[in-house]
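Section 5.1 Outputs to date
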Amino acid sequence: MTLLEERQLQKNNVGDHSPLDTPGAFESENPRSLINIAPTGLREMIADLPINYLTLSERSLYNLAKPDPMLNRLRIAFWKEFENAQASVSDMNWVGITKMIQRPSIMIRKLLEDQHKLAWVLCPPVSYDVFLQEALSHGMDRIREILDLPLRNDEGKVDAKVAELILKAAAFLDLRRHGGFVQKSVNMDIGVGMSERQARNFGEKVTIEDISHKIKQLEQELGMEKEQAGVIDVTDK
């Protein structure tokens, strides 16, 4: 039974309301639903689609359609064009889809004659954030299974491999909860302004006598520079 036939049958049985007529992509009375704004020629293909395809899970549709990268790109482009059409309050256009995947509309229409492939394209892809959140939640469940593994074997001895796996899982959770240690490095250029001899002697132990000697040496050098420049020192007068 097709989508169109199923909708008409349910209306005849239960009146105006039908589960298929709830707000969504295939609500025929909604002028902005997918089936009413789909590109020319595609609306009839959607109406002829067996209704059971629209109730299958994404994984089941994937197994039926066996999509390649081209079909996956078409699926993404199709729903982007749907969003663009909703934003501009206009119908979907083949041009908008073909621009995104760089394929002629005649090729796309021929591809979608396969009802399995059409059903896959009509399955809205989840957002990237939702996909990651679901995958992360599943990963946390599997980590819980690791933490619940029996630590001792049948002989009552600690299984070293299992213990190591549990420790790694616990360390991962701790790292995710508290974050890693912040490591900071300081790069000091100690060679600037040093003579070769000073650079070699850097880090050696320096005594108070050495410092006093260096100060006197600097004072003498400063006095000589003042005499050469003709500067009168009035500090002692």
